[in-house]
Amino acid sequence: MTRLLDKIAQTLINGDRSGIESLVREAIEQFTPDSVLEDGLMKGMEVVGKRFRDCEMFIPEVIRSADCMKKAMEILQPRLVETGGGKLGRTVIIGTVKGDLHDIGKNLVGMMLEGGGFHVVDLGVDVAPEKFVNAVREHKPQLLGMSALLTTTMPFMKETVDALKEAGLKDSVRVIVGGAPVNMEFAREIGSDGYGPNAGATMELARDLIG
Ligand code: B1M
User: Fold this and answer.
1) What is 119-133 written as a DSSP string?
2) How confident is the model at residue 87 (pLDDT cuts 50, 70, 90)?
3) How far is the CA of 86 from the centre of ligand 1 (A)?
4) Which domains does the chain have, with CATH numbers?
5) Is the pLDDT of residue 112 over 90?
């Protein structure tokens, strides 16, 4: 990793929003957007996560780091979208499940999918199963993607799959899930069609399933 990407990681950990902006602008002239994301921003976010877990960082500080991530993503978005392919004419609905307010990973997945040529309808955070179901009725997507970052909110993924089945819509849409506590085994158990470990892999998964 280079010093500039190290500095980006440290600036995100420090929650320095104006600092991150200028560093990311400088970095995208020298590195691919993927590298700025993975080797800079995500490295910093990993440290934030560990310190948060170990009570060495608290919610206000984590929010500042999350704001830095969002600012950086605004700058990266056009580059990430550019690196994707042409329009595929496929609609994907994404959202973070009920009770869960984490949206950075979900937003990144949305950006990568847009970059990959999908039309993305983002339902936001704290999305209840019935809201997913109504959105599937309204938008008739080929793919529905749910994100969960809390072990306590993962069960809403299954509730959503079950609600789609009950509404007779499960056969009309492929369902994928992702987020830090989610894994392939869980994805299978709840009857979804796939698991995305990260934003890049999710774009590939979407292309395999509906591209
Ligand atoms: Co929260 N939080 N948080 N938090 N937070 C975690 C998730 C936690 C692991 C921290 C820790 O203890 N180490 C822990 C969860 C523990 C658990 O459930 N086992 C935790 C907790 C406990 C909480 C609160 C309960 C704290 C409290 O209030 N006491 C609270 C819950 C609020 C709620 O949601 N109801 C809370 C609040 C917050 C903040 C608001 C302060 C902030 C969120 C800001 C925001 O999102 N707007 C926050 C943050 C920032 C984190 C950490 C530090 C970072 C999450 C993140 O953005 N990562 C997180 C620790 C961690 O994960 N290391 C933590 C960067 C992001 C790019 O990665 O989201 O994993 P990620 O997304 C990846 C992949 O997972 C995947 O692709 C993404 C890109 O590669 N992916 C998908 C994600 N969604 C996908 C969907 C897909 C496919 C792939 O298909 C559709």
Assistant:
1) EEEE--SSB-HHHHH
2) low
3) 31
4) 2-83 (1.10.1240.10), 91-210 (3.40.50.280)
5) no
